[in-house]
Design a protein that fits this description.
The chain has about 170 residues and is an alpha/beta fold. It folds into two domains: about 100 residues, FAD/NAD(P)-binding domain (3-Layer(bba) Sandwich), CATH 3.50.50.60; about 60 residues, FAD/NAD(P)-binding domain, CATH 3.50.50.60. It is about 30% helix and about 20% strand. The protein has a four-stranded parallel β-sheet. Strands 4-5-6 form a three-stranded antiparallel β-sheet, with no helix packed on it. Helix 1 links the parallel strand 1 and strand 2. The longest helix is centred in the N-terminal third of the chain and has 13 residues. It starts with a strand and ends with a helix. The model has no long low-confidence stretch (mean pLDDT about 85). The structure holds flavin-adenine dinucleotide. The site of flavin-adenine dinucleotide has 22 residues, from helix 1, strand 4 and helix 5.
Length: about 170
Amino acid sequence: MKVIVIGGSHGGYESVETIYETMPKNTVVNWYDQGDLDLVVNWSKERVDDAKDVRHMTNEALNKNHINLFSLSKVINIDASKHCIIAKNLVTDEEIVDYYDKLIIATGSDANKLRIPGTNLDRVMTMRGKVGINKVKQQLHNAQIKNVIIVGGGYIGIMAANMFSQAGNR
Ligand SMILES: Cc1cc2nc3c(=O)[nH]c(=O)nc-3n(C[C@H](O)[C@H](O)[C@H](O)COP(=O)(O)OP(=O)(O)OC[C@H]3O[C@@H](n4cnc5c(N)ncnc54)[C@H](O)[C@@H]3O)c2cc1C
């Protein structure tokens, strides 16, 4: 059995972990993300202590378990009739045609951007994914920033408000 997983965030991660835990050990997983999957693997590794957890695997261990990472590879087409995807390596521009028995699409979502002028300014940021969150966190101790406006009062907005108020911002 060969499974292709598209998306290396929570949805993709849980899918790969579930395949690893529940499917026959010779199942091959080709795992694609347009971002850096190594970052995902290593970020999770920092946060989880259970040695049996797939999150602890090195790239070598992932390969040993037939889990192949295709980082910086954007899936640009799917042909369901042929059970194949086409992915473009964003570094080399090379196109890869890859075939699956099962396909899991976990391509998620982006932060909803407000359709108003100014959203492209440097200090207007969204909290989405590790890169975005780190960008916001870098501003926490920026002495030039005193007042912060947070748009959105869900748990992510509340988390941001908490972070900035603890750092002494208004
Ligand atoms: C600040 C913050 C804190 C959060 N904290 C929590 C928490 O504590 N607990 C919790 O349960 N949830 C939390 N969430 C929510 C959680 O992050 C989201 O629910 C989750 O990221 C959704 O995962 P996903 O895999 O569905 O999609 P996404 O995270 O959006 O990931 C989609 C992935 O697909 C990739 N992709 C998209 N298109 C393509 C393509 N064509 N080819 C290849 N790859 C592609 C993207 O690069 C991306 O990596 C938090 C979110 C934020 C922003």
